[in-house]
Amino acid sequence: MQTEVDITAKAYAEESIEIDAPPGKVFRLLSDIPDWPHWQAAVEWTEIDGPAVAGKPFRWKAAGIRIESKLHTLTPSTEIGWTGRIFWITAVHNWYLEETAAGTRVTVKEHLKGFGSGMMKTSLQEGMRKNLRELKAAAEKT
């Protein structure tokens, strides 16, 4: 990863899930930013100019909150990560994909920093679990 998550942040979460789909399919879902609203219930819209590449900024709205983000890492079938800003809170959100005998083990790590971010730890973790379940459902569709 070009930008690592700070595990010492007051709002830090890490979750994993097993997905019965190959890493390439899972990576395509995560890196196809315009398609996020189709499989993530909280995502209302996304805006990105052109293909997803490292260094590319994008905007999106999730759970009623407008987020300014920038991709920092895209390694096909293995990792994708971005930074984000919501008002005075900054985030680093990283996804790791590992091929397994059954498909893919996905681990997601995220931290939030800034005034009041420590109060968001529970919602961060709950949102992460929900997002992983949605990713699993989308990736396992035939």
List the keywords.
single chain, 142 residues, alpha+beta, seven-stranded antiparallel sheet, 7 strands, 23% helix
Summarize the topology.
Elements (H helix, E strand, L loop, with lengths): L10 E9 L3 H9 L4 H4 L3 E5 L9 E6 L2 E11 L3 E8 L2 E11 L4 E10 L7 H19 L3
Antiparallel strand pairs: 1-7, 2-3, 3-4, 4-5, 5-6, 6-7
Helix pairs in contact: 1-3
Word description of this protein:
The chain is an alpha+beta fold and 142 residues long. Helix content is 23%, strand content 42%. It contains 3 helices and 7 strands. It has helices at residues 23-31, 36-39, 121-139, and strands at residues 11-19, 43-47, 57-62, 65-75, 79-86, 89-99, 104-113. Strands 1-7-6-5-4-3-2 form a 7-stranded antiparallel β-sheet. Strand 4 (65-75) and strand 5 form a beta hairpin. Helix 1 (23-31) crosses helix 3 (121-139). The termini are far apart. The model has no long low-confidence stretch (mean pLDDT 95).
